[in-house]
């Protein structure tokens, strides 16, 4: 990435989260002045942010919730760009998550994104990148059979409701409203839709998608559904968010997914590198799942690393942080 000559001010929402922490790190390394919103600046789970290179001089944290419009306005003041990453991400089964109710998933994602966009307008922000999800693309019974899913594809709201997939319902509503907003606003809004995000963490607490990868090596379930996981490295997602922000040609939505791998192949790959963990014992065949195309993002200049690198760096990181202990 090229270094920025002048010091431009950009705000990242939910700065202490898994993806956002990498976004903050890359922005600081490129010379940006970074505003980061967090719900509790004194919480130990955000302490890694102040240890990032150049954070002491160029990172300022603002205490706000996505439902606090005035707090967002204060955080965005003086910024030319906002990278809206914050949103509740469930841990555990998507239809019955362990850490959020239906309301707690939908309200911050949908009303929170509306608040972010209004606060951007008030602060005269020029460009916003909204982090959506492949969950806003692929959750539909009507997937194309003969080609990978692209940016024309949207998750089906009624299907999300019927399957109680409130996370994907919330992400789909929030993203479609954000893109709709461009029609009635001066604000330049681009969305990025990552698939399952794996790779090393900068923060000290586990997030939903890292826990999923960890579950393959730790839980050793009797049988696991052999579904296809579209995956992407967290550092490549952070790069894609910066690319969408910095590239003036970026327009509309971008799927951000690098590899598609079935559960069994993923576990076998991990087992071949790290045999001393507790892997699933058998697999239940499942309907072949989603294939996503990131051609549009690639044509903007996005590149991704090999899956092996993601897995090796993730496992090393989990071992160093005590989340994985060999037996
Ligand atoms: N990880 C994935 O596989 C994946 C895949 C596709 C899309 N995404 C999207 O990427 C974004 C970041 O996900 P992540 O994996 O980095 O998750 P994460 O580590 O759980 O981070 C989520 C962030 O959102 C913040 N947040 C949640 N509710 C909030 C609220 N009401 N007000 C203010 N902040 C709030 C959290 O703040 P606290 O720390 O205060 O809770 C946290 O900083 C989300 O938009 C997610 O939908 C993630």
Question: How is this structure best described in words?
Answer:
The protein is α/β, with parallel strands linked by helices. The protein has helices spanning 18-29, 47-50, 55-58, 69-76, 102-122, 157-162, 166-181, 208-218, 234-246, 263-273, 295-299, 307-320; strands at 9-13, 33-38, 59-63, 81-84, 127-131, 188-194, 196-198, 223-225, 228-233, 252-256, 259-262, 282-284. The mean pLDDT is 93. A 7-stranded parallel sheet has the order 3-2-1-4-5-6-10, sandwiched between helices. The protein has a 3-stranded mixed sheet with strand order 7-9-11. A two-stranded parallel sheet has the order 8-12. It has one domain: 3-Layer(aba) Sandwich (Rossmann fold), CATH 3.40.50. NADP nicotinamide-adenine-dinucleotide phosphate is lined by residues 14, 16-20, 38-39, 65-67, 85-89, 108, 112, 131, 133, 171, 194, 196-197, 207-209.
């Amino acid at each position: 990435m090229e270094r920025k000559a002048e010091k431009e001010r950009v705000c990242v929402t939910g700065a202490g989260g898994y993806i956002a922490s990498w976004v903050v790190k890359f922005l600081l390394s490129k010379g940006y002045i970074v505003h980061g919103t967090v719900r509790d600046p004194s919480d130990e789970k955000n302490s890694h942010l102040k240890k990032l290179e150049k954070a002491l001089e160029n990172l300022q944290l603002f205490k706000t919730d996505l439902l606090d419009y005035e707090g967002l306005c204060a955080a965005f003041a003086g910024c030319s760009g906002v990278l809206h990453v914050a949103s509740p991400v469930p841990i555990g089964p998507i239809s019955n998550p362990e850490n959020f109710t239906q309301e707690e998933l939908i309200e911050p994602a949908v009303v929170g994104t509306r608040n972010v966009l209004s606060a951007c307008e008030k602060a005269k922000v020029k460009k916003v990148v909204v982090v959506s999800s492949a969950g806003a693309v692929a959750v539909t019974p009507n997937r194309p059979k003969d080609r990978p899913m692209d940016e024309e594809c949207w998750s089906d709201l009624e299907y999300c409701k019927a399957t109680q997939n409130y996370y994907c319902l919330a992400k789909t509503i929030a993203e479609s409203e954000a893109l709709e907003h461009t029609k009635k606003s001066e604000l330049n809004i681009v969305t990025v839709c990552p698939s399952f995000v794996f790779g090393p963490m900068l923060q000290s607490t586990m997030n939903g998608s890292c826990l999923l990868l960890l579950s393959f090596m730790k839980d050793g379930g009797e049988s696991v559904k052999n579904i296809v996981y579209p995956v992407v490295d967290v550092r490549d997602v952070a790069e894609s968010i910066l690319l969408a922000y910095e590239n003036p040609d970026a327009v509309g939505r971008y799927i951000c997914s690098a590899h598609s791998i079935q559960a069994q192949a993923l576990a076998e790959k991990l087992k071949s590198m790290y045999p001393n963990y507790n892997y699933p014992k058998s697999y239940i065949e499942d309907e072949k799942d989603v294939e996503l195309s990131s051609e549009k993002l690639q044509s903007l200049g996005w590149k991704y690393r090999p899956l092996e690198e993601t897995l090796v760096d993730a496992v090393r990181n989990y071992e160093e942080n005590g989340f994985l202990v060999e037996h």
